[in-house]
């Protein structure tokens, strides 16, 4: 069964409509009917093939026993009609080995069952005497077993039942051992039994269809729940204003890349970006313009990184954290400088800034080589230190974190 149907609202609505009915009124149509047939085909085909094989084996065994135990005058007439069953049964087995057009498989099955029933009846008719009545009863028994175990459409089941009763009536009317009234009464008696069997088969089919509908509904609900969970997860990991990742998501990403150790396998660079004099922008232009500025800066940063590898998050307020896996110092500084220039070139106004009339960024850069051993928190601290140095030395610039003791001392004193 194609499982993507749980995403189809039309099918989901039809399933709910059908389940709202009484069980006996359930009727599958359209796509749901096709899906149900596809679902049960494999099991139905196995049952039909097994039934055909057993009928063929029993027919061959019965013919062999008849030849051994019955007088030749009785056994020989049975032989020819009895040989119809094995080739017919094997032909049905072949047709039902793989899915084909439903009308074709249905026609073959009905024709095959009719020929098998006709063969059983002709065996008794050819032998005559006590075998006449006995084989007609056997024919009905064979038909009833097929009706009970074949999970096929009701129209096919009714057709098989009608053919079985028709054969029984025709041959009973020609039976010299009973009168017309007896033949008619016997047919009516067996008709009631077969009707009950067909009714039971119909109930079994409807219950199977209802179970299938419940499964479709449950799959749809599970899919809807999964989508809702995905939306909640997305909301929990996304900054609602800018639409990029938030601090929580970035923290989880860092833990994933570093694992339980103190090394990032391919090394990584971290960029801590801060909008210069952002508070003054809010004071002069209002918070609505401040929000628009944050959105534009987030978009500009994303446009200047590798979408398939790099990660950008709003880390709080006007700060953005950029993670660049697998880059060296020169590449990290180059990306940072490209981001800084792009933000400046966007010419988003900031009349309160003492650096420029437009929005600018200060960026701190820290790099962990593949052979360096420190945690992502330590790398972030280095990027933060470099950012503060960039702010203390003029803003609107990129500052690379240097590990020299004198530089570290200068950064601490500046902060």
- Compute the number of strand runs: 5
Q: State the major sheet.
A: 5 strands, mixed
In the predicted model, the low-confidence regions spanning at least 5 consecutive residues are 405-415
Q: What sort of overall outline do the alpha carbons produce when their principal axes are compared?
A: rod-shaped
- What are the secondary-structure elements, in order, as H or E? HHHHHHHHHEHHEEHEHEH
Query: What is the helix content?
Result: 55-70%
Strand order of the largest sheet: 2-3-1-4-5
* Structural classification: alpha+beta
Strand percentage: 5-15%
Number of structural domains: 2
The span between the termini is: 64 Å
Total of DSSP H or I helical runs spanning 4+ residues: 14
Instruction: Give the radius of gyration.
Output: 41 Å
Question: What is the averaged pLDDT score?
Answer: 89
């Amino acid at each position: 069964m194609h499982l993507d149907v749980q995403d189809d609202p039309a099918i989901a609505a039809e399933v709910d409509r059908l389940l709202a009915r009484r069980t006996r009124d359930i009727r599958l149509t359209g796509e749901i009917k096709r899906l149900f047939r596809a679902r049960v085909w494999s099991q139905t085909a196995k049952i039909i093939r097994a039934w055909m094989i057993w009928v063929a084996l029993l027919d061959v065994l019965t013919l062999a026993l008849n030849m051994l135990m019955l007088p030749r005058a009785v056994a020989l007439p049975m032989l020819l009609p009895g040989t119809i069953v094995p080739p017919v049964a094997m032909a049905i087995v072949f047709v039902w080995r793989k899915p084909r057009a439903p009308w074709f498989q249905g026609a073959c099955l009905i024709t095959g069952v009719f020929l098998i029933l006709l063969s059983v009846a002709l065996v008794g008719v050819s032998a005559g005497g006590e075998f006449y009545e006995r084989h007609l009863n056997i024919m009905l028994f064979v038909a009833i077993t097929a009706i009970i175990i074949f999970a096929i459409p009701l129209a096919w089941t009714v057709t098989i039942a009608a053919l079985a009763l028709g054969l029984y009536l025709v041959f009973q009317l020609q039976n010299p051992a009973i009168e017309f009234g007896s033949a008619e009464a016997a047919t009516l008696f067996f008709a009631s039994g077969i009707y009950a069997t067909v009714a039971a088969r119909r109930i079994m089919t409807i219950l199977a269809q209802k179970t299938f509908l419940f499964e479709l509904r449950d799959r749809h609900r599970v899919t809807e729940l999964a989508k809702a969970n995905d939306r909640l997860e997305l909301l929990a990991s996304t900054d609602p204003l800018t639409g990029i990742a938030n601090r929580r998501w970035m923290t989880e990403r860092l833990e994933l890349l570093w694992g339980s150790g103190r090394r990032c396998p391919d090394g990584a660079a971290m960029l801590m970006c801060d909008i210069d004099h952002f508070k003054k922008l809010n004071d002069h232009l209002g918070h609505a313009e401040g929000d628009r500025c944050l959105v534009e800066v987030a978009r500009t940063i994303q446009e200047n990184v590798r979408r398939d590898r790099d990660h950008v998050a709003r880390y709080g307020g006007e700060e953005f954290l950029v993670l660049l896996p697998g880059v060296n110092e020169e590449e990290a500084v180059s990306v940072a400088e490209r981001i800084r220039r792009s933000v400046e070139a966007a010419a988003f106004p900031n009349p309160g800034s003492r650096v420029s009339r437009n929005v600018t960024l200060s960026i701190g850069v820290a790099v962990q080589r593949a052979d360096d051993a420190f945690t992502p928190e330590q790398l972030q601290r280095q990027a933060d230190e470099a950012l503060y140095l960039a702010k203390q030395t003029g803003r609107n610039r990129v500052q690379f974190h240097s590990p020299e003791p004198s530089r570290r001392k200068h950064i601490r004193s500046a902060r």
